[in-house]
Amino acid sequence: MYPEKRKEDRSPSTRQPKGKLQVLAGNYSHPVFEVIDVSNTGIRLRLNSPVNIGENVVICYQANGIDLKLNGTVIWNAPPANPGGYTIGIKLTSPSILQAFW
């Protein structure tokens, strides 16, 4: 695993998003099956498929008429852990407001 680089407080995700959360990378949509933690500058997610380091992504959240999109860059990734999926760290290009939605 890569060392954590965020200096801000992280909010561990004890609740998962109520709506649809996915990562758009290029022409691919990667459903998020777990939000691990969130800070003002980044988010750590678990996906079923990998996303390359350096890839610019859009995090999309949809629920109850809300359609939120945040831009970011994958700064690290890790292979599947038993039995989990790929873990990725995304640096957000704008402050995170995702925390307000779950």
Structure description:
- Helices cover 0% and strands 52% of the residues.
- The protein has one domain (11-97): Thrombin, subunit H.
- It has strands at 11-12, 20-25, 28-38, 42-47, 56-63, 66-78, 86-92.
- It has a 6-stranded antiparallel beta barrel.
- It has 102 residues and is mainly β.
- Strand 6 and strand 7 (86-92) form a beta hairpin.
In brief, what are we looking at here?
By secondary structure, the protein is an all-beta fold.
How would you describe the shape?
globular
- How big a fraction of the residues is strand? over 45%
Query: How far apart, in Å, are the first and last alpha carbons?
Result: 26 Å
CATH superfamily: predicted glycosyltransferase like domains
- Counting helices, strands and paired strands, the structural category is mainly beta
What does the average pLDDT come to? 82
What is the level 1 CATH name? Mainly Beta
Reported by name, the CATH topology is Thrombin, subunit H
Any low-confidence stretches, pLDDT <50, length ≥5?
A: none
